[in-house]
Amino acid sequence: MSSSDPKTRPKPGPWPPAPDAAPVPPSSWAKRTGFRPKFSGETNASDSGQIALPPRARENENQTDLEAGRARPVPPLANGEPPVNEKGPAEKDQMVKKRREADGANKGSSGAGANGHTGTNGAAETGTAPQAQQPRRRPSRNEEVVDVLPQNVDDEGFVGRHSHMKYELRDTPGLVPIGLYGFQHYLSMLGSLILIPSVIVPAMGGTYEDTGNVVSTVLFVSGVTTLLHSFFGSRLPLIQGPSFVYLAPALAIINSPEFQGLNGNNFKHIMKELQGAIIIASAFQAILGYSGLMSLFLRLINPVVVAPTIAAVGLSFYSYGFPLVGTCLEIGTMQILLVIIFSLYLRKISVLGHRIFLIYAVPLGLGITWAVAFLLTEAGAYSYKGCDANIPTSNTISEHCRKHVPRMKLCRVDTSHALKSSPWFRFPYPLQWGTPVFHWKMALVMCVVSIIASVDSVGSYHASALLVASRPPTPGVVSRGIGLEGLSSVLAGLWGTGTGSTSLTENVHTIAVTKMGSRRAVELGACVLIVLSLIGKVGGFIASIPEVMVAALLCFMWAMLAALGLSNLRYSEAGSSRNIIIVGLSLFFSLSIPAYFQQYGISPNSNLSVPSYFQPYIVASHGPFRSKYGGVNYIMNTLLSLHMVIAFLVAVILDNTVPGSREERGVYVWSESEAARREPAIVKDYELPFRVGRIFRWVKWVGL
């Protein structure tokens, strides 16, 4: 270009417009929260018509390959402009191309682009008019794509999920693949579905036959509620089932003082009390969702709140896990070590394209340990002369047998007769244990717990949507999902599963590992669950799992639950001192304050009527609250002894009162309703089927 004085020489031209100056790139946490700075040049248009974030201009944004332990190189940027795609748009990923054609993105890009800005938290936000279309930069594909939860954003504002998910939300690859992947999906979550009845039924004084019947009921209710949620809830591929969130309050109710001196069939009496509390709490949760109050409550629920709350659910059962494993150490430790080896050391091994050891770590570990325990039982390792495991310890005269009978019951695999006594066909029906009994103090405890369950589900909705859907749901869709979970828990209370029904937290991990995001696979698997629930021998077989093996599996499941809870911090600025202090205080006080309530009034030499691993749940009889109102004492002592309640209260108060920017807090960003209705992809993902959505279109707070 000439450097002459423009006043003395005519201006040459016309020249092509100069490229805009490269803006200061937003940091990764700003991208993840959908932060949109006010300075110009921050957004550009993608080929799908969505407003998107540009690539970094001053530094290379390498994508880390967690499995290989090194960063994937990204071509350097020249003058702040993205590199030219040499292969052209025709060589783009075929699945993404199919999705865009199905969504009509090419037809309506100009209309959707004005409202389609998407951050890593995935919301569609209103933005400025799109600029010139630029080709999309794709990462290097030389490295293996790993099963990680959504964290980084590509150049178009999409979370990098489409490149590694085999099937997304609306994909229907065929009956055979859907059946295989659906079976795989449910089998990988086997522990979450069947282990809770193995804990609460013996605690209520139930027999192995009662455990088998409750397991069959859980499978039936889980299948029905999963179908309901897939069609009329959030419509995400989330399996519904008995949540660990309800386990601690259920154990607290089971160990209430009024149930300690019961004679006769304790199981049915206590189960009816649990049913009444769950039904009332579930109705409260349904009102919370369908009234639209959940949309307002979402403003208080952020990653810094969800992370310690869910982590506290897993950490709260430390007194139950290994103390019970230690009663038969060789079997329990073998179970734990096998699951760890399969899920960690052998996780990369693939057979026919499937990481069988990672996906099936729990059932494989259970099967091998069960086989070894059977061989030890048959070899006489747990046989003691003159002792019978079927005779109660209180009726045993010999001191030698008193010492060994508990070990025989826990280690032997032939002490349960549930498989022999269970019928081949059994239909679970409502009120099968009797008419529910309602007590307001137990119902209020469960109402508070239903709020914690809703917080858990909010985190699952957001994380799973980033994996499988085009955008996160709108607040109305979240409210609709919470409302349906309340109705599902009402069904669980009527059928008598012992706990409420909610979206299992392990769904997110399972989707990331199996790479199956199709809701059709989840729906088909739910139908299989319903069929299996009608076969009584299935429940009897599951009830035959030795108790020590159940405890060993739960050690792994609870550790996973704690880790999945903390993984929500990836949406916030995890290095912020504000967030570190809030999470640290929440976790510490969630362990320390309940310990004060649980230990209050108990002397070291006191002779308790329950096993040591159930001691934390008898706090209602000796807690520090001792007013003249017994019901208030029960509620306060019970609630403040629950770890997750303390973690939630501390986190939600601090996170919403301590100053911090939206980017630092990692506020969940949901799709905006107005923009969502104009984008075909979001409508197809979350709209109710069978034109039900048109009937209730006036209900703005529970839909798109």
UniProtKB/TrEMBL annotation:
Q: Its Gene Ontology molecular function terms?
A: transmembrane transporter activity
Keyword terms of this UniProt record: Membrane, Transmembrane, Transmembrane helix
Q: How does it sit in the membrane?
A: Multi-pass membrane protein
Q: Which residues cross the membrane?
A: 214-232, 274-293, 324-345, 357-376, 437-455, 521-542, 548-567, 579-597, 634-654
Enumerate composition-biased segments (Pro residues): 11-26
Q: Where is this region: Disordered?
A: 1-145
UniProt KW Transmembrane helix keyword: yes
| Entry superkingdom | Eukaryota
Q: What is its main location?
A: membrane
**Is ATP-binding found in the keyword set?**
no
Q: According to its UniProt record, where is this protein located? A: Membrane
Q: Which InterPro entries match?
A: NCS2
Q: Which Pfam families match?
A: Xan_ur_permease
List the biased-composition ranges (Basic and acidic residues): 88-104
Q: Which GO terms describe its cellular component?
A: membrane
Q: Which PANTHER family match?
A: XANTHINE-URACIL / VITAMIN C PERMEASE FAMILY MEMBER
Q: Which family does it belong to?
A: Belongs to the nucleobase:cation symporter-2 (NCS2) (TC 2.A.40) family.
Q: What is this protein called?
A: Nucleobase-ascorbate transporter 12-like isoform X1
UniProt organism field: Durio zibethinus
Q: What is the lineage of its organism?
A: Eukaryota, Viridiplantae, Streptophyta, Embryophyta, Tracheophyta
